[in-house]
Amino acid sequence: MDFKTFVFFFLAAILTFAALRVITARNPVHAVLNLILAFFTAAGVWLLLEAEFLAMVLVMVYIGAVMVLFLFVVMMLDIDIDKLRQGFWRYLPLGAVIGILMVIEMGMVLGSRYFRSLRIGGVETASNTRELGRLLVTEYVYPFELAAVVLLVAIIAAVALTFRGKKRSRSSDPADQMRVQAADRLRIVQMPVERETPPDADSPPSHHSPA
Prior knowledge:
- By secondary structure, the protein is mainly α.
- It contains ten helices and no strands.
């Protein structure tokens, strides 16, 4: 076993462990941190496959932006961990079946002739970023445009679902505030003085008969 194969199995073991900890961790913050570790390890696997552009995008976009946002949202929300874990074992068989189906589908994709046709053999000076761009605008232009349309529809649907109408917010004009004078904000009103009368002043005097 050479050093490159050893590094691959080492990264694969860490990636598998981190992925399992994402779905088994009791604390959501720990799950997000394990997901960050999984993405970082996957970037290392991409580097072993000589896909530097995909590794850089995975680190900069997912780890640097998306995962930081997820971690911020999870830490800001008040999540009831006990209530969240109540239905874990109930949905475990369904999740296991879906996971096995995903593994089978990934094996079929990796073993197909379409995946093998992406290899660039015998070209030492070829840039994988350039070849990736060439494939996206030539052989895979229609799937690429279809994916762009699906993402656009998802963005519009997310905006439409979260839109709650136009909010009426009070705004102030700085120019109007600078032109305000004291007479516009303060008014002096003269009111007559009210004198409080004794409570027994208007009542007639009481007469007591002698016993």
